[in-house]
What we know:
single chain; alpha+beta; Immunoglobulin-like; 2 domains; four-stranded antiparallel beta sheet; 29% strand
Amino acid sequence: xxxxxxxxxxxxxxxxxxxxxxxxxxxxxxxxxxxxxxxxxxxxxxxxxxxxxxxxxxxxxxxxxxxxxxxxxxxxxxxxxxxxxxxxxxxxxxxxxxxxxxxxxxxxxxxxxxxxxxxxxxxxxxxxxxxxxxxxxxxxxxxxxxxxxxxxxxxxxxxxxxxxxxxxxxxxx
Length: 173
């Protein structure tokens, strides 16, 4: 009699082990990919935000440079007022104030302009001086069409008409 030969089965557990390791590695790499994708989206959002802020800073610096060039222009007309000057150059009007006290809490300074041929003042830019009492304000009016500039103290956000006495009033006609 022949001894019964036992069929040899191939050893498969190493293949299962490799498959399990590959599966675990695939899951881990997928999770890492998701995490990196979220980080990339956040970084892209931050870059977009920084680009917008950078563009705003560039515009602000260009405006300040233009303002400084105007204020230093030899042809500028300068009107001395208590604590500063009103500067008219080309078609622009600027307030340049120094040593201004901070307005009371809940109040701001507000510029007023009077168009030529009008008796009424128009509201202009509300402003607060910096900690050193300096304020340089470009008024959004035409110098050629402006008869007077005034400053008053108004509620935060400004007013449509002066609510208090005019602290500074300079007429150009």
